[in-house]
Amino acid sequence: DVTEIEEKEAQAKQEEQIMKEQELSNLLHEKRYLKALGLAISLDRPHTVLTVVKAILKEPEGRRHLEENIARLRKDQKEAVLGFLVTWNTNSRNCHEAQAVLETLLKHETPDDLLQFSGVKSAVESLLPYT
């Protein structure tokens, strides 16, 4: 019977998730946005990534800070953010943040690099009607 082992594993995963949530909250409070972005992306939390982007844009020099943080993300993280911003862009409340992130990606990535992103074709097709 492996029920007890599975329950312990599930409990450990839940505890780890809670710890990451707390760490994310602390990072946002401390305004350590790059680490917060990375953690939110790794947790696959588009809404949390959007919250971090909004927090960055509220700062003085927010656009510049957003560019600095997005530019420092790894390629896989940028791909994830591109996927997230497609969804954000369809909602008028979040479209400005989506456009700011999209602008940053277009400024700092070469067209050839962007073409290497997984799902870029569908992302562009989804962005065109709303952009």
From TrEMBL:
The gene is Tbl3. This is TBL3 protein. InterPro entries: Utp13_C. GO terms for biological process: endonucleolytic cleavage in 5'-ETS of tricistronic rRNA transcript (SSU-rRNA, 5.8S rRNA, LSU-rRNA); endonucleolytic cleavage to generate mature 5'-end of SSU-rRNA from (SSU-rRNA, 5.8S rRNA, LSU-rRNA). GO terms for cellular component: 90S preribosome; small-subunit processome. It is found in: Nucleus, Nucleolus. The keyword Protease does not apply. Residues 21-131 form the U3 small nucleolar RNA-associated protein 13 C-terminal domain. The keyword Phosphoprotein does not apply. GO terms for molecular function: U3 snoRNA binding. Its main location: nucleus. Keywords: Nucleus, Repeat, WD repeat.
